[in-house]
Specification:
Blueprint: E1 7-10, E2 16-17, E3 33-36, H1 69-75, E4 84-89, H2 95-106, E5 112-116, H3 121-131, E6 138-141, H4 145-155, E7 159-163, H5 180-197, E8 200-206, H6 218-222, E9 225-230, E10 237-245, E11 253-259, E12 262-265, H7 269-273, E13 283-290, E14 293-305, E15 313-316, H8 320-333, E16 341-347, H9 359-371, E17 379-381, E18 384-385, E19 391-392, H10 397-406, E20 411-415, E21 425-429, H11 432-439
Parallel strand pairs: 4-8, 4-9, 5-6, 5-7, 7-8, 15-16, 17-20, 20-21
Antiparallel strand pairs: 1-2, 1-3, 9-10, 10-11, 11-12, 13-14, 14-16, 18-19
Helix pairs in contact: 4-5, 8-9, 9-11
This protein binds adenosine-5'-triphosphate and magnesium ion.
Magnesium ion is lined by residues 95-96, 118, 163.
């Protein structure tokens, strides 16, 4: 009998060959060739009739509440039946914990299955005992893809968690579990099973050093929803956000606190992250927007003299390019000389901000640290800093102002033209220089 032919295909250009190459001979990319299973070609393929959308009967499937309201929010209102969700996160961030809690809550009203490839049944039992309420969760310790798919087709649970997709392997492919080809094959097959057997499937995925889900990019295209679980292992706060969602808004955000009995949702994260100590130098409150959710975040800055030829600009939770730009604008347009100083910026609670609306607060924190004068008490700031030093309006100003008012702040420094209803005072500024004048309490400068 002839050995089943193995094909290697380039994930970038689609070139395929009978052997593996480190560099794709067609497009020249490195490391893009992956192994593919080759099936026997069907002899005759019959055409299928097409449908018009008007004839398609579709009822909005009722979502499955996960029992964790913060997780539901990120999913866009619960788990969609027969969908495929990918949850990525660093080792130890709490992926297994979160999903076991969700399974436990869902198992009270429907069948919930955990496929564990990473931990033994006994290990899961220990975690379940710690979390409580998971007695009805069904469990399968299996790493062979074919067995997992067959079990899902036969048992048809309403929800299934695969922990993790990198441990699954198909014996039809020769490569090792976790390799690009295996992960891609596993996701593609699970997608088919999820749709056909109506199983809402959640895949746990590992992430690479720079935070992307390990394995092929194609994994993120395949699934309906990609959730990123972030946070520092040494802090108890974790942030869950959607980076792709076919059934809801992306960039929704949920905050959890890791406790001895599992992850607990934090419904008012602004309370937690937006509090500053009055009169503290180098601290400012940003009102950043995460998806549709405004969030108050404390930004801290330290400006320290240095002898380094290239002073350091280090940001935790902020984009380094953005930080470098803000520092440059401050030097050039606001008269804050930072050429002989290291600048460190930190966002409270291990939260990461990608939104330009937080620029102004970052700038104010740095100016406060550089001048040794605190930001005025009970104010927040938002707005994008342009390269000319002019402030650009931030999106959804109204919602940000509402959040500031809700937390009992008195005023907000914002770009000129920002209007709001409430009783919050708006300190409008055309340029960053004006914003700094409005926001920094110069009368309380150190030694002055
Ligand atoms: N007894 C405990 N009390 C409090 N927290 C605990 C306890 N045991 C574990 N944890 C927390 O749970 C975290 C591990 O969670 P979990 O196993 O869900 O992570 P994970 O993301 O699934 O990791 P991996 O990628 O290794 O599977 C630990 O980092 C720790 O913070
Ligand atoms: Mg785990």
């Amino acid at each position: 009998m002839a050995k089943a032919a193995t094909q290697f295909a380039c994930t970038d250009c689609g070139y395929s060959a009978g052997r593996w190459f480190g560099k794709c001979p067609s497009c020249g990319e490195f490391g893009t060739l992956v192994e593919e299973a080759t099936g026997q070609a069907k002899s005759a393929t019959a055409a299928k009739p097409t449908l018009r959308l008007i004839d398609v009967k579709a009822e909005e499937a009722e979502r499955i509440p996960t029992g964790i309201s913060e997780l539901d929010r990120v999913l866009g209102g619960g788990l969609v039946p027969a969908s495929l969700v990918l949850v990525g996160g660093e080792p130890g961030v709490g992926k297994s914990t979160l999903l076991l809690s969700a399974l436990a809550a869902m198992s009270t009203s429907r069948r919930a299955l955990l496929v564990t490839g990473e931990e033994s049944v006994a290990q899961v039992k220990l975690r379940a005992a710690r979390l409580g309420g998971a007695e009805q969760v069904e469990i399968l310790a299996e790493t062979e893809l074919e067995t997992v798919c067959a079990t899902l087709e036969q048992e048809r649970p309403a929800v299934c968690v695969i922990d993790s997709v990198q441990t699954l392997y198909s014996s039809e492919l020769g490569s090792a579990p976790g390799s690009v080809g295996q992960v891609r094959e596993a996701a593609a097959r699970l997608l088919r099973v999820a749709k056909e057997a109506g199983v809402a499937t959640i895949l746990v995925g590992h992430v690479t050093k720079d935070g992307a889900v390990a394995g092929p990019r194609v994994l993120e295209h395949l699934v309906d929803c990609v959730l990123q679980f972030e946070g520092d292992r040494y802090h108890e706060h974790r942030v869950l956000r959607a980076s792709k969602n076919r059934f809801g808004s992306t960039n929704e955000l949920a905050v959890f606190e890791m406790t001895g009995t599992g992850l607990v949702g934090v419904p008012e994260p602004s309370e937690l992250f937006g509090r500053t100590v009055e009169g503290e130098i180098g601290a400012a409150v940003a009102c950043a927007l995460e998806g549709s959710r405004p969030l108050l975040l404390e930004i801290q800055a330290l400006v320290a003299p240095t002898d380094l030829a290239m002073p350091r600009r280090v940001g935790t939770g902020v984009d380094p390019k953005r930080l470098a730009m803000i520092v440059a604008v401050l030097s050039r347009h606001a008269g804050v000389a930072l050429g002989q100083a290291d600048v460190f910026v930190n966002v409270a609670g291990g939260v990461r901000i990608d939104e330009p609306g937080a620029d102004l607060a970052i700038g104010l924190a740095i100016v406060s640290a550089a001048k040794g004068a605190p930001v005025k008490p009970r104010i927040a700031a938002f707005g994008e800093i342009g390269l000319t030093g002019r402030l650009r309006p931030a999106t959804q100003a109204e919602r940000r102002l509402e959040e500031c008012a809700k937390l009992g702040l008195e005023a907000a420094v914002a770009p000129a033209g920002t209007t709001g209803r409430g009783k919050l005072r708006i300190l409008e500024a055309e340029t960053f220089r004006e914003a700094a004048k409005a926001g920094i309490d110069a009368t309380r400068a150190e030694g002055g």
